[in-house]
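A quick aside before the break. I want you to see a complete sequence-to-structure record at least once, exactly as it would be stored in a machine-readable document. Don't worry about memorizing anything.
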Amino acid sequence: MIDIFKRLAPSYANVVRKLGIDVWYDRADFDQFISSAERFRRRYERELIEYYHRMKYPFRRSEIRDLSDEWLADQVTIFGKVKEVADEKKKNLQIKLDEVKDRKREEVSKLIEDAKRHEGRIVRVLSFADNLEKRSKQIGEDQAFELATKINHQVVEKISGVYVWKTQEDNRVRTTHRKLANKIFAYDDPPTTIDKYGHTHTGNPGTDWGCRCWEEAARGKPLRGYVVRG
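That is the input. The structure line, written in tokens, reads:
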């Protein structure tokens, strides 16, 4: 299933990246964004259903559609969040400009030069954490993974009480999750990870913050009380 993730996720990442840019320049179209999200989720549904047929996994189309509908509703929140952050950044920028009204001419000149440099990279410097465009793209990718992992979890959990832990096999996978890859666990006894900062989490794939891991149906004996350190 990882090939589906890698092939389709970038397209939605670019949809949300474009939203970040459009929101900044006050040209974002809500209906267009939701329409893009709708097309994406329908394509993802088709690909996942084909995958489950190949794997001979039992599933109900109605359950997949219900989860897909929930995901689509979440995209309304994503649109609002991107706009909220951009509006706040614009407000802060205006405050800074207002502060220079009574400054000396040389100070104003310096501010103008700074503003010119700033304008050329405006999309890249205004962000959730570091820049709006990059962060928007990451959010889009995470949302794409969330759609697939929620559906996959629903399907695989009903097959048996155990699963194989799978990762995205890229450089964003955290060290602790690399150590869980391809091991068998039980849904009722998920592994515990402890990162290098001492943060502890116990849960199945996709439950930790920012986790893009997923599960594959298994029949073997699961590891119990498993703990891994980063």
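Two observations worth writing down. The chain has a mean pLDDT of 85. The chain has two domains: 2-151, 160-229. We'll return to this after the break.
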